[in-house]
Amino acid sequence: MEFISQHPILVAAVVKIAVLLFIVMTALAYLTWLERKAIAHIQSRWGPYNVGAHGLLQPLADGIKFLFKEDVTPPAADKLAYLLAPFLALALGLSAIALIPFGPPSVRFPNGEQIFSVVDINIGLLLLFAITSMGVYGVALAGWSSNSKYPLLGGLRSSAQMISYEVSLTVSVVGVILLAGTLNFNEIIAGNGQPGQFGQTGHWFHFIPRWYIFPQIIGFLCYLTSAIAETNRVPFDLPEAETELVAGFHTEYSSFKFAMFFMAEYANMITVSCLATILFLGGWLSPFPDTGIWHYQIFLPSAGLLALAAYCAWNTVSEMRGIARLQLGVVTLLAGGGGLICLYRPIAEGVQGPFWFTTKILAILFFYIWMRATLPRFRYDQLMSFGWKLVLPVSLANLVITALVIILWPHLRHG
Amino acid sequence: MIAILLFMVCAALAVAGAVTLIWAKEPIHSALALVLVMVALAVLYLLLGAPFIAAVQIIVYAGAIMVLFVFVIMLLNAGVEERTNFSKLAIPGVVLAFVLLLEIAHWMFHSAIGRALANGANAPTTEASTYDLSEMLFKQYLFPFEATSILILIAVLGAWVLARREP
Predict the structure, then answer these.
(1) Is the residue at B48 inside a domain?
(2) Chain A closest-CA separation from residue B55 CA (Å)
(3) With contacts defined as CB-CB under 8 Å, which chain B residues touch A78?
(4) What's the CA dihedral at A137, A139, A145, A150 to 10 degrees?
(5) In this structure, are B69 and B9 located in the same domain?
(6) Considering chain A, what is the average pLDDT of its residues?
(7) What domain range is B68 assigned to?
(8) Does residue B76 lie within any of the structural domains?
């Protein structure tokens, strides 16, 4: 007990990490559901439908299936590296999320600890890149240690791809750092909504938010492209090109080790979406001005939840299967209760930050899924020349032009 | 208390990684051990109040250079290392290392600077900010910085000349 009272920061950090881990794991599970559902609807199918209402229990069923499958280790595999690879991939993918602030630092616990971020450090962005830059080891080790042809080729391909695109990923965000003048996430977000020198309230023409996406639109496009390539998603999913490489680096992995790679991929998707939100889309800031009728925007989370509750209630009535009806009823109650709680003004003000942050992340994740359902895969040489000959020079040019503009017209930085 | 504990663990990890690096027969295991050393060193930098250096250490060494090492080992499919039983050169090596250790111990316990360091006189009180670092790098030490970047440029050009196809 004495230790706990002496180290409140440590205890708060552990509790926040546990809660965040729970939320992120649930989000990972339901991201797979969302992806299958969205792609299915884009392709005029139903997607998962039978396990729970609208397939809502499908992630749970998948998890149980992965747990109880036989865990095969190839006899010729390098045991240590084979075991280490999935752990490394998942651990790095999850720990990067711990650096993200999900809400404004002004919302605090009674003892002064920030509620919505685990840590608030001055070099947050740099540390995030440090963690994600290690992510390639999971893929490379998995490919090498399986001691089999397809994983080795897949591992080589994806290491080369991740190394190549990491360069342009890093260069494309430097423009934003130059504009913000800091590496701290909370300060970068605050810079996104900085009031201009002519008395504007954080918006151009009173309705376009002053986010860095507008001055840095080229950087944003470069970032988005490199981020998709960095997380090995379509159209850059060459590491797991089924027709050529079976399943790429994780061909030999089965059971929960495979699930860990799967979760790591989705955790990385969430991380790069969070980073895009923080750097270019204003993080937890609201896109609307705080004038006139927009004062009522603090009830938007409540309105969204109540709308979801109404939709689920309507589905509950029209649903035929008893169990599915029960599940929909539970979702209705949860969403409705949450919506009613958020009508209470202090709580409504508290959840503003996470609400906008989550909305923006979901929008980017949906874009990811949309791409996957729409685009065909690149050829390997196309991928490499696209990265090195187009994205990297363009992001470098963006960096040089941004620096020039800041030096020549310093007042534009916040203007 | 926690800082000392962290230092002990990371110092032990760094030494263990360095020993494994030499001991391991499989090249990839050696490379992984070196990554462990880099990360443990980064934590030590962090404890010394230099978070920027710590992050850059991981990005540059663990995230870039060692990834290339692993990549090349994978690409060449290097086999298990061959090993001879004993080398006579090891004897003077061990003696020299022992002498060096003694010298360091002597310096630490019997010189003014060493004693001051041991008593924590130069212990960092504040974290070095990124701003201070870039002030020094781009103003005070601008010339060495630019000279180093030209050196690196020459290395890149050299690699390009060696790697391009003969006309």
Answers:
(1) yes
(2) 5
(3) 26, 28
(4) -150
(5) yes
(6) 82
(7) 1-83
(8) yes
